[in-house]
Write a structure and sequence with these properties.
The chain has six helices and eleven strands. The protein is an alpha/beta fold. It folds into three domains: 2-91, 3-Layer(bba) Sandwich (FAD/NAD(P)-binding domain); 100-167, FAD/NAD(P)-binding domain, CATH 3.50.50; 173-255, Glutaredoxin. Strands 3-2-1-7 form a four-stranded parallel beta sheet, covered by helices on one side. Strands 9-8-10-11 form a four-stranded mixed beta sheet, sandwiched between helices. Strand 5 (70-75) and strand 6 (81-85) form a beta hairpin. The chain is rod-shaped and about 85 Å long. It binds flavin-adenine dinucleotide.
Length: 256
């Protein structure tokens, strides 16, 4: 067997393959004795009788009639090509996420080009989710990719539902909308809700009360830059016409 590469993944895989293969040859691009893998992996590979190395070399071509039988190797110092008989080739020469198409967008990438997300698979752009190997994370496996996918799908669905609810009930209604940002654990915001209800907003046909729990509706909360609760917005024709932060009852009476 041939393993191409000399980072942790390549050396770990080469060691693993020795359980099944008679001989594993690692093709290393660097000078003899120099590898990118951590010392521990290097030492394990050197100590394994079934592993040997071809240094200063890269894989130039794979030959075989439907099944691999030859690796054509190139010496990077001399340019010389040699043929190496083998039954299989495992290539571990680094991973590059295919995220070039995002470079001109607001979607934030890390230095290696992986997409940054939070635990809900949200990227830096509202409504854009990322899942699987392409995102920044510690373990890249089928099961973690599938888990990411499930999370992203559920989150994207609830985002779409929340957006639709907001559009229909707040932005596209002909009523004046009183939006109360609150949270069940925040007593002052609960008091404010009670005051609004007492003022009869819900009984007034020209007005509508929409309560936004800041914990469950983070995106709307962020969009309207609400950091302090209670915050009250009065919205007409999709535009905020009044904004009250930490209002007292008399402030509410004046605007409602
Ligand atoms: C050699 C090797 C061995 C592995 N062995 C295992 C293992 O034993 N067990 C395990 O759990 N995992 C293993 N993995 C990891 C596993 O394959 C990945 O974690 C998993 O496939 C990630 O799934 P994904 O959907 O995120 O990405 P992928 O499976 O890579 O799928 C991404 C898809 O997106 C497509 N695509 C790319 N760019 C675009 C674009 N711009 N627009 C539309 N589509 C696009 C691609 O063509 C591809 O079909 C191995 C990986 C490698 C490389």
């Amino acid at each position: 067997m041939v393993v191409v590469g000399n980072g942790n993944s390549a050396i770990e895989e080469a060691i693993y393959l020795t359980k099944f293969a008679r001989r594993v040859t690692i093709i290393v691009i660097h000078e003899e004795g120099k590898m990118d893998a951590e010392k521990l992996f290097q030492e394990r590979a050197y100590a394994n009788d079934k592993i040997d190395f071809i240094w200063n070399s890269t894989l130039e071509e794979v030959k075989g009639d439907g099944i691999v039988d030859t690796a054509v190797l190139k010496n990077v110092k001399t340019g010389e090509l040699t043929e190496f008989n083998c039954d299989g080739i495992f290539i571990f020469v680094g991973r590059v996420p295919s995220t070039d198409f995002l470079e001109e967008t607001e979607v934030e990438l890390n230095e290696q080009g992986y997409i940054k997300t939070n635990e809900e698979m949200e990227t830096s752009v509202q409504g854009v989710y990322a899942a699987g190997d392409v995102r920044e994370k510690p373990v890249r496996q089928v099961i973690t990719a599938a888990g990411d996918g499930a999370t992203a799908a559920v989150m994207a669905q609830s985002y779409l539902e929340a957006e639709e609810h907001w559009r229909e009930n707040v932005l596209q209604t002909d009523k004046q909308v009183v939006v109360a940002f609150w949270n069940p654990t925040h007593s002052k915001s609960l008091d404010t809700l009670q005051t609004i209800e007492k003022l009869g907003v819900e009984q007034d046909d020209s007005k509508k009360l929409v309560k936004i729990d800041t914990y469950r509706n983070r995106l709307i909360t962020e969009r309207y830059s609400v950091s302090d609760i209670p915050t009250i917005l009065v919205i007409e024709n999709g535009e905020v016409i009044e904004r009250l932060e930490q209002p007292e009852s008399q402030d509410l009476e004046k605007i409602l």
